[in-house]
């Protein structure tokens, strides 16, 4: 699975921006420090839209966070770096890599370093509003293991997404 994802990254990024743009919904999140993706926490992001500008050198994320049941809309711009990773500031410094992109699903790997220097490795799975199939979930579990994220830290978040579409 990991070799497949890396191959998809190397082969697909040149064509990925057309598939990245559009309406998306966060399907699942995983993190090695699970406390920051729990309900009401800052990196539990309910993504709504991705937009590329400047030949996808800038990637705009539109998403909601939810604290105390209140949804707050946020837009963050990530800038492409020389190594084809994106960098953005939100709840610290973030390195963002789209590792798998199809018209139906996008998987991002994110490394967040918060204001206190705590590093967290995350996986965000975006889709078109459906839950992951059992096969997709198994592949996510395998990928999370390679990223040193425990299986118990994978969260299907569609059920808790009450923010505006």
From TrEMBL:
**Which first-to-last residue range defines the signal peptide?**
1-16
Domain of life, per lineage = Eukaryota
Q: Which Pfam families match?
A: Lipocalin
Family as reported in the entry's similarity comment: Belongs to the calycin superfamily. Lipocalin family.
* InterPro entries in alphabetical order: Calycin (IPR012674), Lipocalin (IPR002345), Lipocln_cytosolic_FA-bd_dom (IPR000566), OBP-like (IPR002448)
On whether Zinc is a keyword of this UniProt record, the answer is no
SUPFAM superfamilies registered for this protein in UniProt = Lipocalins
Places the protein is found: Secreted
Which ranges carry the Lipocalin/cytosolic fatty-acid binding domain?
22-160
The record lists the organism as Microtus ochrogaster
From the record, what ranges are coiled-coil? none
Q: Keywords of this protein's UniProt record, alphabetized? A: Disulfide bond, Secreted, Signal
Has UniProt tagged this entry with the keyword DNA-binding? no
Provide the primary localization.
secreted
Its recorded name reads Aphrodisin-like
């Amino acid at each position: 699975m990991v070799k497949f994802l890396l191959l998809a990254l190397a082969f697909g990024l040149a064509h990925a921006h057309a598939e990245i743009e559009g309406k998306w919904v966060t399907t699942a999140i995983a993190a090695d420090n699970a406390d920051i993706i729990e309900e009401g926490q800052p990196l539990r992001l309910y993504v709504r839209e991705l937009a590329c500008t400047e030949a996808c050198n800038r990637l705009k994320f539109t998403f909601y966070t939810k604290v105390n049941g209140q949804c707050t809309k946020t837009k963050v711009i990530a800038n492409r770096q020389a190594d084809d990773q994106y960098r953005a500031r939100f709840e610290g410094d973030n390195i963002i890599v789209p590792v798998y992109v199809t018209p139906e699903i996008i998987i991002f790997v994110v490394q967040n370093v918060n204001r206190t220097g705590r590093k967290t490795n995350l996986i965000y799975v975006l889709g078109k509003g459906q839950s992951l199939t059992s096969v997709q979930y198994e592949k996510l579990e395998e990928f999370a293991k390679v990223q040193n994220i425990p299986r118990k830290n994978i969260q299907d978040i569609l059920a808790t997404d009450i923010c505006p579409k």
